Task: inverse folding
């Protein structure tokens, strides 16, 4: 499986062997800029709406994200997930990079003028 996002504000979960859409997730208010797998059942996405959303593919409700984090003041353009250490790095066009602790969704370190 793979996730595809973009300007439609939707994430399409695709069967990578046949190209069929398995599920469509909705919840971002602007273009989705990056998606990353966390576990076999969860993934995370970032968007120009300045949010980081966590999703579970087993939930029946397509708009039910697990959790949303918002600390960037401008568009988020990328992320890197470290699932084994429960860490995430997000980068925004507000010139900031944020290191997150995913056990309690707190900020470990905030770099305001990093880019």
Result:
């Amino acid at each position: 499986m793979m996730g595809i996002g973009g300007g439609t504000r939707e994430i399409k979960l695709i069967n990578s062997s046949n190209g069929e859409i398995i599920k469509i997730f909705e919840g971002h208010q602007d273009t989705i800029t990056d998606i990353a797998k966390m576990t076999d059942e969860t993934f995370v996405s970032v968007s120009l709406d300045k949010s980081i959303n966590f999703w579970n593919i087993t939930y029946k409700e397509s708009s039910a994200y697990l959790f949303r984090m918002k600390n960037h003041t401008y568009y988020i353009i990328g992320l890197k997930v470290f699932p084994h250490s429960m860490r995430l790095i997000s980068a925004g066009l507000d010139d900031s990079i944020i290191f997150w602790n995913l056990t309690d969704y707190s900020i470990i370190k905030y770099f305001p003028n990093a880019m």
